[in-house]
Amino acid sequence: MIRHASTGLLSRSIATGVQHRHFSSTEVPAADELFMMAWKRIMPNLDPPKTPLSFVRPRPSSISAADIASKLTVNLVSPYSEFSNREVDMVVVPATTGQMGILPGHMASISELKPGVLSIHDGDDVKKYFISSGFAFIHSNSVADIMATEAVPIEQVDPASVQKWLVEFTQKLSSASTDLEKAEAQIGVDVLVALNSAL
Amino acid sequence: MAALRREGRRFAAPLISNNPIKPFRSSFAPAEEQALLGVRSISTQIVRNRMKSVRNIQKITKAMKMVAASKLRAIQTKAENSRGLWQPFTALLGDTPSVDVKKNVIVTISSDKGLCGGINSTSVKISRGIRKLNSGPDQESKYVILGEKAKVQLVRDSKNDIELIITELQKNPLNYTQVSVLADDILKNVEYDALRIVFNKFQSVVSFLPTTATVLSPEVVEKEAESGGKLGELDSYEIEGGETKSEVLQNLTEFQFSCVMFNAVLENACSEQGARMSAMDSSSRNAGEMLDRLTLTYNRTRQASITTELIEIISGASALEG
């Protein structure tokens, strides 16, 4: 059933002459055809539910390798806030493998993030945010999505309370008895050390 | 019109009996007088009582509407801020509600309190529809229910298929930590190949769209990526961090689930408040109309009884004269 859907979509995309990318703005299907048809067959009296596909915001279309955008489009999202579609020069993210710099034309990748400082460079203007882990998707059309569970501008972090909590958590770590307590204390220490070094 | 007829019938009944209305003897003086005279007219007391209760209902529903409006304002900003959270996931992994898997888990989100219009019934109908859609020979669907209202409806016919029931979600203001703990709970206790979250998306104060979001388990994501189709490009992404691709994929799908759940719960809460606002608004408007009709009936009754008294006095006087 999925093969049919894929061949159907592929033939449509070949006809329009654009490479098949399901998140390019030129040919995002507004709804999943197969789902709509199956729903109409089974529940003809009820309108089919909408899917996230109908609410997706358009994204810049994919570009071939020769034609790299000059600026990186960055979306920084967290459960409580979002900064979308900002055109910047470079973003440095704290990936689990170390600080990773993202420039326009970066290869497509998915990376896990560890607690640390995210900095957004736009010309001479550098904005720093502290993020507590998340994911970063880099698409081949120079769009970077950074999803963090918490993203706080570094100016809002209070150094005194960071020190206090760091001392407390190191204490907890040394006095932890069960594995669970040790893990919790370790997480706390990691985040606070990163915060500390960022200030 | 039917209401008027019903009221008319109710008031006609005392007219038919010739006995005084006993219940009212003990209560109010004006009613006693009328009862002593014999039942020649409908007691205005009944109409007056009814008007009092309808007026109270109107006040209560108006107050409920104000409360719902203020709650909606508070939670709407949160919901709009959380809308960006699931966009990157849909951009990367697509949304495949037509995916064909063995174990489907339908997460139905509903409200705990009632008086909010038809949104909970629509969610339940959609969940049942999705279940029917995915009822193949070796497919099974289970329910995870959030909220009392869906539980009451689904327990009636699918009691054995319900895995988890979670209520009193909104006791404390909604935040991401609470929802992620909930998502963790669900992921740990339920075996799934695809999670289908059913909720009402808040489009505007008068419009709520039933929506379903699909989250696949890491194994299914890998399978779909290999077989091409919508997730075909996933392999072109280089995975950084974590030891193996499957570990990163697992973290990714868990994170996706908690993000989508957070947005879904917020949107459903907004829809609930919006639906309650419009339900209470129409209810207070109906109460106002009923009050108007009752006032007319009351005035007619009062004037009729005055006229009757006058007629008696005048006929008595004219009989005396000659």
Automatic annotation (TrEMBL), chain A:
<dbReference type="GO" id="GO:0005743">
    <property type="term" value="C:mitochondrial inner membrane"/>
</dbReference>
<dbReference type="InterPro" id="IPR020546">
    <property type="entry name" value="ATP_synth_F1_dsu/esu_N"/>
</dbReference>
<keyword id="KW-0999">Mitochondrion inner membrane</keyword>
<keyword id="KW-0472">Membrane</keyword>
<keyword id="KW-0809">Transit peptide</keyword>
<protein>
    <recommendedName>
        <fullName>ATP synthase F1 complex delta/epsilon subunit N-terminal domain-containing protein</fullName>
    </recommendedName>
</protein>
<keyword id="KW-0496">Mitochondrion</keyword>
<keyword id="KW-0375">Hydrogen ion transport</keyword>
<dbReference type="InterPro" id="IPR036771">
    <property type="entry name" value="ATPsynth_dsu/esu_N"/>
</dbReference>
<keyword id="KW-0406">Ion transport</keyword>
<dbReference type="GO" id="GO:0045259">
    <property type="term" value="C:proton-transporting ATP synthase complex"/>
</dbReference>
<feature type="domain" description="ATP synthase F1 complex delta/epsilon subunit N-terminal">
    <location>
        <begin position="72"/>
        <end position="149"/>
    </location>
</feature>
<comment type="similarity">
    <text>Belongs to the ATPase epsilon chain family.</text>
</comment>
<dbReference type="Pfam" id="PF02823">
    <property type="entry name" value="ATP-synt_DE_N"/>
</dbReference>
<dbReference type="GO" id="GO:0046933">
    <property type="term" value="F:proton-transporting ATP synthase activity, rotational mechanism"/>
</dbReference>
<keyword id="KW-0813">Transport</keyword>
<dbReference type="InterPro" id="IPR001469">
    <property type="entry name" value="ATP_synth_F1_dsu/esu"/>
</dbReference>
Automatic annotation (TrEMBL), chain B:
<protein>
    <recommendedName>
        <fullName>ATP synthase subunit gamma</fullName>
    </recommendedName>
</protein>
<dbReference type="GO" id="GO:0046933">
    <property type="term" value="F:proton-transporting ATP synthase activity, rotational mechanism"/>
</dbReference>
<keyword id="KW-0813">Transport</keyword>
<comment type="subunit">
    <text>F-type ATPases have 2 components, CF(1) - the catalytic core - and CF(0) - the membrane proton channel. CF(1) has five subunits: alpha(3), beta(3), gamma(1), delta(1), epsilon(1). CF(0) has three main subunits: a, b and c.</text>
</comment>
<keyword id="KW-0809">Transit peptide</keyword>
<dbReference type="GO" id="GO:0045259">
    <property type="term" value="C:proton-transporting ATP synthase complex"/>
</dbReference>
<keyword id="KW-0496">Mitochondrion</keyword>
<keyword id="KW-0139">CF(1)</keyword>
<dbReference type="InterPro" id="IPR000131">
    <property type="entry name" value="ATP_synth_F1_gsu"/>
</dbReference>
<dbReference type="GO" id="GO:0005743">
    <property type="term" value="C:mitochondrial inner membrane"/>
</dbReference>
<dbReference type="Pfam" id="PF00231">
    <property type="entry name" value="ATP-synt"/>
</dbReference>
<comment type="function">
    <text>Mitochondrial membrane ATP synthase (F(1)F(0) ATP synthase or Complex V) produces ATP from ADP in the presence of a proton gradient across the membrane which is generated by electron transport complexes of the respiratory chain. F-type ATPases consist of two structural domains, F(1) - containing the extramembraneous catalytic core, and F(0) - containing the membrane proton channel, linked together by a central stalk and a peripheral stalk. During catalysis, ATP synthesis in the catalytic domain of F(1) is coupled via a rotary mechanism of the central stalk subunits to proton translocation.</text>
</comment>
<comment type="subunit">
    <text>F-type ATPases have 2 components, CF(1) - the catalytic core - and CF(0) - the membrane proton channel. CF(1) and CF(0) have multiple subunits.</text>
</comment>
<keyword id="KW-0375">Hydrogen ion transport</keyword>
<dbReference type="InterPro" id="IPR023632">
    <property type="entry name" value="ATP_synth_F1_gsu_CS"/>
</dbReference>
<comment type="similarity">
    <text>Belongs to the ATPase gamma chain family.</text>
</comment>
<keyword id="KW-0472">Membrane</keyword>
<dbReference type="InterPro" id="IPR035968">
    <property type="entry name" value="ATP_synth_F1_ATPase_gsu"/>
</dbReference>
<keyword id="KW-0999">Mitochondrion inner membrane</keyword>
<keyword id="KW-0406">Ion transport</keyword>
<keyword id="KW-0066">ATP synthesis</keyword>
